[in-house]
Design brief:
Strand 4 and strand 5 form a beta hairpin. The protein has a four-stranded mixed β-sheet with strand order 4-5-1-9, covered by helices on one side. Strands 6-8-7 form a three-stranded antiparallel β-sheet. Helix content is 26%, strand content 28%. The chain is α+β, with helices and mostly antiparallel strands.
Amino acid sequence: MNYCYAYYKIELNTSGKKALHDEAYTLLDKLLCDKLGTGLDSYGEIKTNDCGKPYFVNEKAPHYNISHTKGGVMVGIASSEIGVDIEHARPIHGSLFARCFSANDLAFIDTINLNTAPLIPWTYKEAYLKALGTGIKGTAMLQGINMPLDHSDPDFSFEYFTDSDFAGCVYVTSKVPIEITRI
């Protein structure tokens, strides 16, 4: 069975990376219980790859990813590799886009109303890199890469959202419907 589910929580009063990290894993446990019928503990040991992406050692466990930002967390599970990102609204300058995105990426960015969703390109790129397993460590985020931007590609799926002062994206390396739910 192919699947991809994501939950996000915003407007949290939690502060500090450890508290947000703990909140994300609590939300992951809820997502696993709600959608797959078993909690986090049933999947066993968690490790990280060389780039810091977490995964269950148990090969029968789902793929998962987490993200947290000031006041919000997001988690996702899928039957194939997944990346998620959530960001709290903040100004992003055009020079940052020029350094971090390829010409193809910038053409996609031009199709988005950045006045209402300035972080969509950023969350898309971060979720994409996390799904590939490289994440944003090192220089990957600061390199222009030609991200696949067309929903018709048979090899992946992505969805993005805006909610209040937050933007987020889910990227999965298979063609599957993505269900994103605010908790």
